[in-house]
Amino acid sequence: MKYRDEFHDGALCGELSGRIRKLAGNRPLTFMEVCGTHTVSIHRFGIRSLLPETIRLLSGPGCPVCVTSASDIDRAIALASLPGVIVATFGDLFRVPGTFTSLAAERASGRDVRLLYSPLEALQTARENPDKTVVLIGVGFETTTPTLAATVLEARRLNLENFTLMCAMKTIPEALETIIRTPELKVDGFLLPGHLSAVTGTAIYEFITGRYRLACAVTGFEPLDILMGVHSLVRQVVEGKCLIENAYGRAVPAKGNPRAVKVMQEVFEPCDAAWRGIGLIPRSGLRLRPEFSDMDALSRFPLELPPAKEHPACLCGQILRGLKSPEDCPLFGRECLPENPVGACMVSSEGTCAAHFRYGGRT
Fold first, then answer.
1. CA distances in angstroms from 56 to 77, 111, 258, listed in the order given
2. Measured between alpha carbons, how far is 130 from 14 in angstroms, rounded to an integer?
């Protein structure tokens, strides 16, 4: 309890802010927070006001709903239009626009689209509807993929032949490397996601420090967590170091959760994947291994769809790569609003545009 009291002590945030300012001096520094939850916390708690103006924080591609491609949304919508199919999805994905419509609009028109809180609910839906096929839309990073893997294993144990999974999961390291290699983007270090690292461990980021010589700090989501991460990055840059420092040791073991990783690797294997606004990133997605291919929704229901399109004025892709801010987008706060989102970054509760709109002074 003593630790919790200290953790929430605003005086410690003020003290750490002073240390950061002293360390940074007038040095211009740019850091990227990878996780969407970091983006929300930074805006919600006014973290930028505690940092010197020379430190710039960019939002990265760490919102799984935001990076789900329009083509994947179109596939999910097409599956929902098939007779005898129940599409099961999670809340944030429900309103993400595809080329012409969304799953929310399709349900309003009479399609059987159901919202879940847990992937295991899809198994119960399959058991209750033996005459229909349930398609679970699988999205997420390494944080949530183990639960999808466990769901597949449980479906196999129960011999549920009417359960399928549409794989749209992605992995973070490959996306980070793509961003690092973007010529227009120059960053000095990364604030890395705590909950994802609790699953994977910290070794997956070694290419950032070894190959690209950039500072890394794994951290949590409270104000003091974030400031500790920023302090670590500033200190590393000033001292000329490139390390993976764990500022979230109370939740992130260095080796992560080996059991969760093992389950994930037992069920899924790497594949190329399309990221919204970024494009195709080799080996950044996950698909079912051959022994589970009978549960692959897209194999069971082959689809031929026209190329997906996004709103030509939407800047979600550039925002996800840290090249633009939401305020640069001509749609932000005008045509694109939380109640009428044009881009995925405004839909998700962890989206950069949603965070800017909610906490950036707009009402």
1. 39, 45, 35
2. 59
pLDDT confidence tier of residue 77, bands split at 50, 70 and 90 = very high
The edge-to-edge listing of strands for the beta sheet with 55-62 is: 55-62, 29-35, 189-193, 215-219, 244-246
Write the secondary structure of 300-358 as one string of H (helix), E (strand) and C (coil): HCCCCCCCCCCCCCCCHHHHHCCCCCHHHCCCECCCEECCECCCHHHHCCCCHHHHHHH
CA distance 359 to 344: 18
Rounded distance between C-alpha atoms, residue 57 and residue 47, angstroms: 10
The pair of three-digit structure tokens given for residue 187, joined into one six-digit string: 């960053």
| Residue listed under structure tokens 């009978």 | 294
- Give tens-digit pLDDT for 156-201: 999 999 999 999 999 999 999 999 999 989 999 999 999 999 999 9
How far apart, in whole angstroms, are the C-alpha atoms of residue 315 and residue 345? 9
Pairing, β 268-275 against β 279-288: antiparallel
The number of domains in the chain is 1
Letter string b/e over residues 179-218, b meaning 16 or more CB atoms within 10 A of that residue's CB: bbeeeeeebbbbbbbbbbbbbbbbebbeebbeeeebbbbb
Residue 271 has pLDDT above 60, yes or no: yes
- Residue 72 CA to residue 167 CA, distance in Å, equals 9
Amino acid making up residue 11:
A
The token pair at 88 is: 């099961």
Domain that holds residue 268: 1-363
CATH number at residue 3: 3.40.50.11740
Q: For the CA atoms of 264, 268, 273, 278, what is the dihedral angle to 10 degrees? A: 0
Beta bridge partners of 296: 165
Give the pLDDT confidence of 331-349 residue by residue, as tens digits.
999 999 988 888 889 988 7
Residue 350: pLDDT band (50, 70, 90) is confident
Structure tokens at 328: 């640069």
